[in-house]
Amino acid sequence: MVLVIDQLKKSFGGVRAVNGVSLEVRDGEIVGIIGPNGSGKTTLINLITGYYEPDEGLIEVSGKRIDGMRPYAIAALGVARTFQVPRVFKRLSVLDNLAAALAFNRRAREGSEERARDLLKTFDLWDKRHEPAGNLSGGQQRILEIVRAMMTRPQLLLLDEPTAGLNPLFIAKLKDILLDMKNEGTSTLIVEHNMRVVVDFCERVVAMSEGQIIAEGVPAEVLESPVVIDSYLGR
Ligand SMILES: Nc1ncnc2c1ncn2[C@@H]1O[C@H](COP(=O)(O)OP(=O)(O)O)[C@@H](O)[C@H]1O
Ligand SMILES: [Mg+2]
Question: What is the pTM of this model?
Fold first, then answer.
């Protein structure tokens, strides 16, 4: 099991953003997280990656307890992420953004030049490799951030709405790469609003509402579940 979460809780003032979430992700599994805005999806990723400290509960990555650890220490265990609003190093070149991901990860440096070239070519960013990342469009910055997270060949990849603003061709390419990474053992947790992507990418989906998991299972069933439909309609 690459990720085990048990009874995780995080409040902000009176808002119970994550309110007793338990979840397991197996090695190589691709799991979707859906739910209306404000249901706690991003907070869950921030807890797993150490950006927020849980109020209660436990998080283990590959059997090691990580709740309370700092983000860099969790990243060093092979957990990579992207942000809902991309955070690239705007004044660094595209290539230097990728190099930054490898700075603390000796293992991932092997073959990294080739990997960077392949990924950048796949997403039409190779010609921009010497440009400051701040010159890229919003969609290109999102892709750069995804590529940066992939550079380290993580055990666990956490993607927060990665397909927002991406064209269908790039979405298809993203799927291919995630499947390649799955075959190399990477597990992916993907927060996604595009239900076609959820059905297409994910073996299992977890639906959240008001900080809790309200349904879990294969995508087709979860998306048709009345509690999930009701949560989106705000009933
Ligand atoms: N840093 C924060 N400070 C205060 N409230 C927050 C913070 N992060 C998230 N929240 C609140 O927690 C709830 C869940 O937010 P979030 O996890 O971003 O939801 P989602 O990603 O599902 O849209 C929301 O009510 C949001 O306003
Ligand atoms: Mg969010």
Answer: 0.95
